[in-house]
Amino acid sequence: MANLSVEFCGVKFKNPTVLASGILGVTASSLKNIVRHGAGGVTTKSIWLEENIGHKNPTMFGTEHYFLNAVGLSDAGILKAREETFPEYLKDKQAPIIANVVASKIDDFAEIVGEIDKLGPDIIEVNIGCPNVEDFHGKPFACDRNDAAKVTKVCRERTKKPLIIKLTPNVPNIASVAEACAKEGADGFCAINTLYGMTIDTTLRMPILANKSGGVSGPAIKPTAVKCVYDIYKATGLSIIGTGGVLTGEDAIEIMMAGARLVGIGTMVYYRGVEGFGLIVKEIDEWCEKNGVKNLEEIIGAAVK
Ligand SMILES: Cc1cc2nc3c(=O)[nH]c(=O)nc-3n(C[C@H](O)[C@H](O)[C@H](O)COP(=O)(O)O)c2cc1C
C-alpha cells in the first residue's frame, strides 16, 4: 500500500481527497459523514457574515457530462458556523476542516476571516468568485488581479492560519491573478470554481435555471481545471487544491500531476454518491501500486516542466 498521506500548508491529511465547498458541507453531521466515507478532509459551504438567501429555483440542472448550478451561495451566516458547524465538527474531529468564506465587500472579507479564525478551522479558503459589489461593473474579485490582491492583503492581516484563495477559471490569465495573491501573503490556492454557463429548454425557448445562467461543474470542466492548476503551480509553486471534474482515482492522479497537493471533489457525489470518496481513495492506491509509486510526493507536479 502506498503512502497516501499529504501535508498541505503544514496540515496533515490522511489522503488527498477533500470535499469541495458547496456540496453537502452545510452541517457538522453531513461533513462528518463525508469523512466516514473516506475523504481526507472537508470544506464548508461558503460562509457569509450574515444570512444569504441565494437564487430562486430551479437552481440545478445535470447531465452525464456536466452540472449547471445557480444556488447563489445561500448560507445561514457566521452565527450557525459559530453555534453548530464548528463546535460539533471539532468535538471529535477525524479529519482537517477547511472553512470557506465569502463576502461582497473588501472590509467584509477581513471581518469574516477574523471571525472564522476564532472558530478553529485548519485552513481558511477565501472564495473570491462572488461579484464585487464595490465595483461598478459587478465583476468577481477573482477576475481582476488587483482586486484579488486587495482581498488577500486584508485577509492575511486577520489570520495566521493557512490562507488559500479560491480562484475562478473565467479569466484570461489565472497565473497572473495567483501571483498577485501570492505577493500579498496567500499560502496556496483552490482552483477552480465553476465556469460560466447556460442551458436552454428548447421547448419553452427559455433558460432552464431561474437565474438564467449558472456555474458549470463536473466531468466537462476537468481539462480546464488541470490547465489552471498547471499554470498556477508553474507560476507560484504554492500548494493547490486541484478541483474540477474529478470523478475517479485516475482523475485525481492527473490533477496532482499538474501540481495539486490535495484534490477537491464536489459534483462526483451526484454520479457516485458519498461512497465515491472511499472508492476514489482505493483507485488512487491501486494506481500507485500498478505504477510503482510509494509516496504521492512522487507525482505532485510531475507533469509540470
Ligand atoms: C451545487 C454547487 C454549489 C457550490 N457552492 C460553492 C460554494 O458555496 N462556494 C465555493 O467556493 N464553491 C462552490 N461550488 C464550486 C465547487 O466547490 C467546485 O469548485 C466546482 O464545482 C468544481 O468542482 P467539481 O467539478 O468537483 O464539482 C459549488 C458547486 C456546486 C456544484
Q: Specify the CATH class.
A: Alpha Beta
Bound molecules: flavin mononucleotide
Per CATH, the superfamily is Aldolase class I
Helix count equals 9
Number of strand elements: 16
Q: Look at the helices and sheets and give the structural class.
A: alpha/beta
N- to C-terminal separation?
Answer: 28 Å
Main-sheet strand order equals 3-4-7-8-9-10-15-16
List low-confidence stretches.
none
Mean model confidence by pLDDT: 95
Using only C-alpha atoms, the radius of gyration works out to 18 Å
Q: SSE string, helix = H, strand = E?
A: EEEHEEEHEHEHEHEEEEEHEHEHH
CATH topology: TIM Barrel
- Global outline: globular
| Corresponding CATH architecture | Alpha-Beta Barrel
What share of the residues lie within helices? 25-40%
Instruction: List the domain count as a whole number.
Output: 1
Strand coverage percent: 15-25%
Query: Sheet bearing the most strands, described?
Result: 8 strands, parallel, barrel
Structure explained in plain terms:
The protein is 33% helix and 19% strand. It has 9 helices and 16 strands. The chain has helices at 28-36, 78-91, 106-117, 145-156, 174-183, 222-236, 249-257, 268-272, 276-290; strands at residues 6-8, 11-13, 17-19, 41-43, 60-62, 67-69, 97-101, 123-127, 163-166, 188-191, 195-198, 200-201, 206-207, 213-217, 239-243, 262-265. The longest helix has 15 residues, at 222-236. The radius of gyration is 18 Å and the shape is globular. The two termini are 28 Å apart. It binds flavin mononucleotide (FMN). The site of flavin mononucleotide has 26 residues, from β6.
